[in-house]
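Lecture 7 notes: from sequence to structure.
We start with the chain below.
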Amino acid sequence: MALVPNPVNDGPVFAEVDMGGDSSSPTVRATVVQAATVFYDTPATLGSLHFSCPPLYLFLCENCLLFAINHLMHMEALFDKAERLLAEAASYGSQLVVFPEAFVGGYPRGSNFGATIGNRTAKGKEEFRKYHAAAIDVPGPEVVRLAAMAGKYKVHLVMGVIERDRYTLYCTVLFFDSQGHYLGKHRKIMPTALERIIWGFGDGSTIPVFETQIGKIGAAICWENRMPLLRTAMYAKGIEIYCAPTADARDLWQASMTHIALEGGCFVLSANQFCRRKDYPAPPDYVFSGTEEDLAPDSVVCAGGSVIISPSGTVLAGPNYEGEALISADLDLGEIARAKFDFDVVGHYSRPEVLSLTVMDQPTSPVTFTSASANAEVAKR
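Predicted structure tokens for the same chain:
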């Protein structure tokens, strides 16, 4: 079954919200993707799967073969959807496409992984095993495939993923340029509430702002955007196009996005999923704790609210609460200088002799070895 329905004619898959920009200044066409992920589906290649069979076997046992086939089908389903959305955005002339938080790997909305203070259930541990299997390695084959997609459609790509680093997971954003190069990543430094049970904490080494052909691009994920010191660090790096993949569909989120645009004098692009109960596995495989009995298959469990806002606080496109959509706007880069004339938070409006920020931006590791070769191996992770 097609994850993104084929149109009955040659029109677009999703209706696009299109707002024009000022043609007298350089413009960048940007799109935020509002779409549901394919939950518990592992975007992996056969070479990256881990089988339970002894390595000397020249064949796969039945369970492992089914596992491999299932994962390969899931890979194609998820990446077919991502590529179709990317191609659709590119057909509108988009130069930058931003996907939601955890689009690859899935946002485990409503799940508690069987955790209470002092106890974890066997079922919850099995849920984590499946979630771990659905995550991706960075670098890894999925990163290569995403880079190829960005290069194929000549767009800068910002993609929310669940990153697997051995047995710890991170909520991560990956960045790619329009030539198909992987630029780097941002790991969420502070997961929210129960997210802290399943995701590790990023450090100051992955708060990048990348200088690209279309401007300086960075990202903060969901409620990280409410952390003023993190925002200040990004402003100090000169961010111009501030990406905010999220899972928050509440009206209050719009106030945060508008504030950041005004505070940072930057464009803010917030991408959220729009998903219904049927986009997640059916019970008992997946249960929305405390609300499952109130949900029908078509019940909306995340209403989107994706939006694009200018440095002056003007809403250029969105917020959209209607369904899956591509939401686009032309970013007039001249707006940045006009906004900074009023307020430059780390420039003429700063008072470093009174207020200052120190960012620890070196990678952190729980183990340091005395030999350079061992430390090099740790650094590759």
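Points to note: The radius of gyration is 21 Å. The chain has eight helices and 17 strands.
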